[in-house]
Specification:
The chain is of the alpha+beta class and about 180 residues long. It has one domain. Helices cover about 30% and strands about 50% of the residues. The protein contains four helices and five strands; from the N terminus they run H-H-H-E-E-H-E-E-E. Strands 1, 2, 3, 4 and 5 form a five-stranded mixed sheet that branches. A hairpin with a 2-residue loop joins strand 1 and strand 2. The longest helix is centred in the first third of the chain and has 20 residues. The protein is globular, with a radius of gyration of 19 Å. The relative contact order is 0.20.
């Protein structure tokens, strides 16, 4: 009887550890699901990209501030064919004529095996030569294309920023245990 009880407790602890996510991750996941709905509401044409991508990453709340040097960061949820597989964080640094602050959502669509592997291995970076389509909630059109297996879409949420800058984004990926 004692062995059975110990086995039950051990099984519970193992399963709790496997499926556990901290409260910050749970909030990011919930915010990512909400952001996806908002992105699709603002631009229903994005559905084809969500359906077509091998992996997509939704950063629901990216914050950026700048005074000549700008920095941004955010946390996101990583989905493979629509199934949550991990968490990611984004760091951005840029330099140029810029001032202000803003919040935005960003989704990255990864279509090729190489782009997916680079992202998951931590070898994925954006530099000045990768462009993103930026839109506000009232922008109905979509002119998004894959470049090297990657497409990016951002949607401003709030804030005011003026900028002409050069920089890059760096991403870290952590698989869900």
């Amino acid at each position: 009887m004692k062995t059975k009880k110990l086995f039950t407790i051990l099984l519970f602890l193992i399963s709790a550890t496997i499926f556990a996510q901290n409260s910050d991750d749970k909030k990011v996941i919930k915010d990512a699901e909400k952001a996806k709905k908002e992105l699709l509401k603002a631009n229903p044409n994005l559905q084809a990209y969500f359906d077509d991508a091998k992996v997509y990453v939704i950063f629901p709340n990216v914050g950026k501030g700048a005074l000549i040097v700008g920095a941004a960061s955010g946390n996101g949820a990583v989905y493979e064919r629509g199934v949550l597989v991990g968490m990611a964080n984004l760091k951005q640094l840029d330099v140029g004529a810029q001032i202000g602050g803003k919040a935005f959502s960003e989704v990255i669509f990864l279509k090729t095996d190489k782009a997916v592997q680079d992202f998951m291995n931590g070898d994925f970076k954006f530099s000045g030569n990768i462009s993103a389509i930026a839109a506000d909630k009232s922008t109905p059109s979509l002119n998004l294309s894959y470049e090297d297996g990657v497409a990016v879409y951002t949607m401003d949420k709030e804030g005011l920023m003026a900028e002409v800058s050069v920089g890059g984004q760096k991403f870290d990926y952590k698989a869900i245990d």
